[in-house]
Specification:
Strand content: 15-25%
Keywords: Membrane, Transmembrane, Transmembrane helix
Radius of gyration: 31 Å
Strand order of the largest sheet: 4-3-2-1-7-6-5
CATH class of the largest domain: Mainly Beta
Length: 334
């Protein structure tokens, strides 16, 4: 089982392609049919759509009102998609993302179904590329660099220093006091309600009602099964304190203690660490300070020699210092 969450996927281009491919033809068909119906009705009463001064006959008022409503909806649709395309283009251009996230099929569909939206997106993307990109969050890189430097320092015989932990009372020294995202991995029991349907009428109506009820019960059962399956729960950004023997997490109003000797497996990924125990649910800590937790855990649990041999520390040992990374990476500045 993988405890690493999948990377978030941006699917707004796929959604936009599907939406425009459905809505645009539907509106065009509706406006065209209403226009033709209105034109036929007016001609039957000796008038025409081009006669702006003529009154609309009573028999044609309903179809002409429908035409006006559809034209209004179409105008709002064009304006909304154009403005959305402009805003999305500016945002993606400023963040230096690929044009259309390089989803060329979706871009092509949008260009055919809503060319005005693609045009405003293109203009916005160009404007965004001219703007200064947003400030880069360096906390993750700083956290990994701190873990690497701490590992090197301790491996060379250094001693970990204590850090202040305001309000936290313990007889042991505190070596890490950070705010990390906390989560636990477990399944649970979810109750769901089954419904029964009683229908009267034609066989087709009764069959449809029973099928709809069966589909609703099946969806409720599937939703309950998904919610009950083992997954990360109890997500919370909280305070995490590490001492030589324990990791303390302040979760939902109380302090939870995790004995380091009870940890059976320790996993590290680019976003955080996962601790597996024999008698309690897995613990996940995510954040810039998570890698430092891994270094200190290995040092206090196994001693300084483990800093160069523990397999879960391999990503930290492989991390380059910022200076070395800059020296070995080609410049991307223009």
């Amino acid at each position: 089982m993988s405890f690493v969450p999948p990377p978030p996927k941006s699917r707004h281009w796929t959604f936009t392609a599907v939406a425009t491919a459905v809505v645009t033809p539907a509106l065009v068909w509706g406006v065209d049919r209403s226009y033709r119906s209105t034109e036929r009705c007016l001609r039957a009463h000796g008038s025409s759509i081009g006669d702006s001064d003529a009154d609309i006959p009573e028999p044609c008022s309903e179809v002409s009102a429908l035409l006006g409503l559809l034209v209004l909806i179409a105008g709002a649709y064009v304006a909304a998609t154009a403005i959305t395309g402009l805003c999305v283009g500016v945002a993606e251009g400023r963040h230096r993302r690929g044009f259309g996230h390089r989803r060329w099929f979706s871009v092509t569909v949008v260009g055919v179904a809503a060319p005005w939206a693609l045009a405003t997106y293109t203009a916005g993307y160009g404007i965004g590329r001219l703007l200064r990109p947003p400030a880069v969050d360096t906390s993750w890189a700083d956290g990994r660099d701190a873990a690497r430097r701490t590992l090197e320092f301790l491996a060379q015989g250094g001693q970990p220093g204590a850090v202040p932990a305001p309000g936290f009372l313990t007889e042991e020294p505190v070596h890490l006091d950070a705010r990390l995202h906390y989560a636990r991995h477990y399944g649970t029991t979810v109750a769901y309600q089954q419904t029964s349907a009683v229908a009267f009428g034609s066989p087709a109506f009764v069959t449809g009602a029973l099928l709809a009820n069966a589909v609703g019960n099946s969806n409720a059962r599937s939703r309950a099964a998904r919610m009950a399956s083992p997954q990360w729960r109890d997500h919370e950004l909280t305070r995490v304190v590490l001492t030589p023997t324990r990791t303390w997490c302040y979760s939902f109003g109380r302090w939870l203690s995790f004995d380091h000797t009870a940890v059976m497996e320790y996993h590290l990924d680019p976003h955080g660490v996962v601790l597996l125990f024999a008698d309690t649910e897995p613990l996940r800590l995510t954040g810039p300070g998570a890698w430092l937790h891994a270094v200190l855990f290995a040092y206090f649990r196994f001693g300084a020699p483990a800093l160069t041999t523990a397999t879960f520390l391999l990503p930290i040992r492989a991390t380059q210092s910022p200076a070395a990374s800059a020296a070995t990476s080609p410049s991307t500045s223009r």
